[in-house]
Amino acid sequence: MEPFRYHVYACEQKKPDGLPCCAARGALKTIDALRRELGKQGLVDTVQVTACGSLGLCERGPNLVVYPDGIWYSGVTAADVPELVREHFQQGRPLERLVNRDENALRQEVTGNRNAYLGMMKAKDAAGVVPDELQAMIRGFMESRIVLTGIELDVFTAVQDGATAAAVAAARATEPRATAVLLDALAALELLVKQDGSYRPAPVAARFLVAGAPDDATTALKHNLSLWDRWSTLTACVRAGTSVSYQEMTERDASWTVPFIAAMHRNAALRAPLVVRAVGPGGALRLLDVGGGSGAYAIAFAQASPSLRAEIFDLPTVTPIARGHIAAAGLADRVTTRDGDLRQDDLGGGHDLVLISAICHMLDPAQNQDLLRRVHAALQPGGRVVIQDHVLDADRTSPRAGALFAVNMLVGTQAGGTYSEDEYTAWLTGAGFTDVRRVKLPGPSDLMIARR
Questions:
Q1: Contacts for 423 with CB less than 8 Å, ≥ 6 apart
Q2: What is the pLDDT of residues 89-129, one digit of tens each?
Q3: CA gap 79, 36 in Å, rounded
Q4: Three-class secondary structure of residue 174 per DSSP
Q5: Alpha-carbon distance 110 to 126, whole Å?
Q6: DSSP letter at 315?
Q7: d(CA 221, CA 210)
């Protein structure tokens, strides 16, 4: 079977520093260039590209193998890609200057590298060396902290037109030597490009980490600075059984609230269309968005149903942010806000659709049961409640994102967590709901939908 005319296997394996590998020789840039060029030439349905592990020619990467022709290429740079696509995939002629033609030599090199690798792994295992994967997991905080400090100091904006470490230090009131160390590390992480002592943002940083860029995500990403502080207390939280640094939302200033709501808005802007399609506003006329944050979901539902009116119920520190997004969407006549505390306040009545998105994980089981009872009272007969959140499987170890997020709730809340489908079902039926069902969505969260 040949669903594609050509199938390219492209090595992207990354090895520890000092060991030859395709990733260290620019494989990711080559693969990206190949996919872009195939798209540009209209060949995405003709040529399938699959990134893979080592092809065994580590010293001569980036390496590609093209089937069904069985052509092995080595040393393919991003600059070679247009010629490769033109010659091989459009004209049917292998690009000879990059082809390995000596089959015996090729086999010997692949076999030799494989045996050397297996020998090294055997020696490391015999010596009791901690596996690379475990080491990377344990030291993952290093890269995270470097990037977060870069964001916190806004160095990406400082170098947007090119700047030396001394210039960045002067602009950001930091120490020159330490600034150079940070910038070099960001260049090693390929978020900055260094040339002749001057730094500038790499494309991904220019797009997302420079203030004022069209896709500037720095405000939302600064929420991770708050997470960093809370996660550093995890050991103490496990001993105490609860957050040891908990603050009420109303006690948190704008330096916490604004990045948090911005982060939630970016997530919601992507997921809101998925939720709207899965729920289907149907004939709903009144939506209550409990803890609606930035208003992204209420806005999406209102945009999908011109007859629907939505109300966002949230804290007075949050609703002004929501009103800004509502105004920007031109929906101030149909989407409104109401100040309140979802943990205790009356939710009103007459609604035929209530959304509870990314709220239940902040509450303990008793609080969730109480909230759902008040939601039941706020709905008209036949109305629906939609919960969007992490939904764990019965063993509570999967999905992985949900199990890890439970830790986020341990360090950040008094007794919040992530909950299973069975728990949500029990709470909903206990509150008087019927027709309870789970709707799986792409990504980390699912829906639990029920009807009054």
A1: 365
A2: 999 999 999 999 999 999 999 999 899 888 988 998 899 99
A3: 12
A4: coil
A5: 24
A6: -
A7: 12
